[in-house]
């Protein structure tokens, strides 16, 4: 039987630094970065049990172009303790799906990160 330990999405971006700043505004840390030219080619974003990685399209293509040939954007879904805190931390972020209550009772919002990925934030157990 396969036993899993964790999952870590690797998201591709034109501007890894902007993506790291998106997540640090939410209180996560950037413990690892790898430089690329004048910017960042790779970053690990981590904290509160969450780990994401961002890699620049150019460095991914340089390593294995066939592996990222048809990769464009992704969707990441995260459960949070306070959706209001997310909204306060990201006032200028493009909202794709506005604040709403789902059929399963969660309060959610979907935004775009600086790379164009769709990021969903969900709060369960909230009260109006």
TrEMBL record:
Residues 11-121 form the Glyoxalase/fosfomycin resistance/dioxygenase domain. Coiled coil: none annotated. InterPro entries: Glyas_Bleomycin-R_OHBP_Dase, Glyas_Fos-R_dOase_dom. Signal peptide: none annotated. This is Glyoxalase/fosfomycin resistance/dioxygenase domain-containing protein.
């Amino acid at each position: 039987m396969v036993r899993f330990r964790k999952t870590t999405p690797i998201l591709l971006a034109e501007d890894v630094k902007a993506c790291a700043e998106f997540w640090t505004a939410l209180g996560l840390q950037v413990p690892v970065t790898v430089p690329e030219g004048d910017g960042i080619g790779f970053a690990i974003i981590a904290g509160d049990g969450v780990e994401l990685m961002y890699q620049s399209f150019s460095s991914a293509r340089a390593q294995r172009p066939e592996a990222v040939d048809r990769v464009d954007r992704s969707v990441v879904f995260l459960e949070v303790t306070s959706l209001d805190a997310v909204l306060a931390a990201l006032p200028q972020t493009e909202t794709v799906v506005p604040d709403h209550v789902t059929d399963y009772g969660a309060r959610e919002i979907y935004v775009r990160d600086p790379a164009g990925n769709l990021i969903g934030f969900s709060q369960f157990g909230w009260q109006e």
